[in-house]
């Protein structure tokens, strides 16, 4: 049988990776779970087939290394993530890693003046623990030790989950994961929005990534009998939370480019005939400019306190994540755009509303991102879909990009023009 094309092989591998899941019939692969371990082992095998040496760092990031011309050669990082949201699609994060492996295999024949390290991060989505981008932060040398105490829904701390996975949390505390000699970071990712498809353009150059903040809100009222407590005497935590959630939506609606989502909510005691005594929910708040996001955050905090006061419930608001908005490096944008042009494709620059590992790496080195068109702008959903011909185009553009990169152009003291 003839060997499949590189892009066909990437699509096939993405299908195989999709089978690493905690829940049959869907793709759910959370950080440091058996499904994550299965994915690491599969991807590690493909990295080794491509001629890369591999290791797992203390944050659960799988690293595939193609050496450079000398031991101290500068390093190009290429990364994305292999964890998923619950009931995910197969491309978010994984497309970038699987494509990077094929790219590194091609790079072996290109005599590049630098080494390549593929970083397959395990925690971009932040679904299991109330912290996120931990692998990318560790790579950037910015892992915050307090995150080790973060607890998942089963009350397992991140430190315990890392240890159960065979990793050494102490190594994170000692910051042993930081990438050295990195001169730039590139990430290939599905767009997760409708812009490229609407313009009938396969690839896009990312200009900036929206900043994001996440919060956990606890509303405490008083549980009571649903039949006996008069409406005027209730302290209904869920009714108060509902008013808060609508206020959050309205605050975001009133501000162009601000988006706010309440994606998780739990109620206790959670019974039909009991007034809810406690309600917890999350807020995910994003904006392309940090000042805009901070204004919205202040408005939300004030609105939540006002509802709590009016409804006679207690309110606790805890921030669990913050990532500042990031500008993609103009030099990397130019190189990616030139490679797209050379491939005979139209150039489209666009910002990213979704968060990416690149945000955490931006404090380490210049970052650049290439978006691949997806169907209907659908993402974080099983219907996520990408065309093989677009993956072929991305491979072509990235191969060209690797050949155009000169590490000295990115040396400190050589800032973007
Ligand atoms: C990750 O996909 C995020 O933007 O939340
Ligand atoms: Mn992603
Ligand atoms: Mn995602």
Q: How many helices in DSSP terms?
A: 12
Proportion of helical residues? 25-40%
**Main sheet, how many strands, which sense, barrel?**
9 strands, mixed
Averaging pLDDT over every residue, what do you get?
96
Give me the strand/helix succession.
HHEEEHEHHHEHEEEHEEEEHEEHEHEH
Please indicate the percent range of residues in DSSP E strands (runs of 2 or more).
15-25%
Radius of gyration in whole Å, from Cα? Answer: 23 Å
Number of strands: 16
Low-confidence spans: none
Q: Structural class, from helix and strand content?
A: alpha+beta
Bound molecules: glyoxylic acid, manganese (II) ion
Distance between the termini: 50 Å
Shape: globular
List keywords for this structure.
five-stranded antiparallel beta sheet, alpha+beta, nine-stranded mixed beta sheet, 417 residues, binds glyoxylic acid, 12 helices, binds manganese (II) ion
């Amino acid at each position: 049988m003839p060997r499949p094309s590189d892009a066909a092989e990437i699509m096939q591998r993405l299908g195989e990776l999709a089978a690493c899941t905690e829940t049959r019939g869907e793709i759910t692969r959370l950080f440091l779970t058996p499904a994550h371990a299965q994915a690491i082992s599969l991807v590690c095998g493909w990295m080794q087939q491509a001629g890369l040496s591999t290791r797992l760092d203390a944050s659960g990031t799988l690293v595939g290394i193609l050496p450079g011309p000398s031991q101290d050669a500068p390093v190009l990082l290429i990364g994305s993530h292999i964890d998923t949201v619950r009931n995910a699609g197969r491309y978010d994060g994984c497309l970038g890693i699987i494509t990077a492996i094929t790219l590194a295999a091609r790079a072996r024949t290109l005599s590049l003046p630098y080494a390549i390290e593929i970083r397959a991060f395990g925690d971009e989505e932040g679904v299991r623990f109330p912290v996120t981008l931990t692998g990318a932060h560790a790579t950037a040398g910015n892992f915050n030790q307090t995150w080790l105490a973060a607890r998942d829904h089963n009350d397992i701390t991140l430190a315990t989950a890392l240890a159960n996975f065979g990793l050494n949390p102490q190594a994170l505390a000692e910051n042993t994961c930081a990438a050295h000699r990195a001169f730039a970071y590139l990430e290939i990712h599905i767009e997760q929005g409708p812009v490229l498809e609407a313009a009938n353009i396969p690839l896009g150059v990312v200009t900036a990534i929206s900043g994001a903040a996440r919060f956990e809100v606890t509303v405490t009222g008083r549980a009571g009998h649903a039949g006996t407590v008069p409406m005027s005497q209730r302290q209904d935590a869920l009714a108060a939370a509902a008013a808060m959630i609508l206020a959050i939506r309205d605050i975001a609606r009133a501000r162009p480019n601000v988006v706010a989502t309440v994606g998780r909510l739990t109620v206790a005691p959670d019974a039909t005939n009991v007034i809810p005594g406690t309600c917890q929910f999350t807020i995910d708040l994003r904006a392309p400019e940090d000042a805009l996001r901070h204004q919205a955050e202040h408005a939300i905090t004030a609105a939540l306190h006002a509802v709590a006061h009016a409804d006679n419930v207690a309110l606790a608001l805890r921030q669990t994540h913050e990532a500042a908005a990031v500008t993609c490096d103009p030099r990397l944008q130019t190189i990616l755009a030139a490679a797209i042009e050379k491939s005979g494709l139209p150039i489209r620059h666009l910002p990213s509303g979704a968060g990416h590992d690149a945000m955490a790496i931006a404090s380490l080195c210049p970052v650049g991102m290439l978006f691949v068109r997806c169907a209907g702008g659908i993402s974080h959903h099983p219907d996520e879909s990408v065309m093989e011909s677009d993956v072929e185009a991305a491979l072509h553009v990235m191969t060209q990009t690797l050949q155009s990169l000169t590490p000295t152009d990115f040396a400190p003291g050589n800032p973007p023009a």
